[in-house]
Amino acid sequence: MAIQTRTIEYKDGDVVLEAYMAWEEGHAPKPGVLIAHAWRGRSEFEQGKAEILAELGYVGFALDLYGKGVLGASREENSALMQPLLDDRAVLQRRMHLALAQIRKQKEVDGSRIAAMGFCFGGLCVLDLARTAADLSGVASVHGLFAAPGNLQDERIKAKVLVLHGWDDPMATPDQVLALAEELTKAGADWQIHGYGNTLHAFSNPAANDPAHGTVYNPVADRRSWQSLQLFLAELF
Fold it and tell me: In angstroms, what CA-CA distances link 190 with 82, 113, 183, 193?
């Protein structure tokens, strides 16, 4: 069957957001997977993941955290787009919940079977969604950031958690990995962390090639992490 796609507009106050959804033709509603973007914004990378997930029998929903058509073109622009949401995690969490509400409204989606995954900054976003005790099946962080938000305390994490992490990632150090494990344990989460040796940040992105910045594609870690993600989704659904 053919893969179908469409864009979906929704709002956070006056900010217009636009998601990209992909699914395979068919009548029965399918499990949905939110895809939270890296610091650049919703790009062809996340849209491609949505289409691959559709080929696997899910509905891929590449969400938008910045605003319709907003996409950084440099490190400086990307950082300027991301930083306000890092500074105000309540806004970040609200936009994640808006995306969760939107995917549940789609007729192609089984609203009782939803997961979320995210890359880099998006990994932090899906962890924050879980940290709010959101009602969804699971979240997967792929070379994500781990810093806990300051606006939540003692929330129980309902979603299962998968963390796919490059051990040499300068943006998420071993100490931060251990802190995340302690946080998830305290929150009562069903969690697993997979660490890939000799692997830096952005290991799943073929365009990553900046050793000085700590971002380098690693095809072995990319393959292994994608296999682990598929097993995780199969377990959830």
Answer: 28, 17, 12, 11
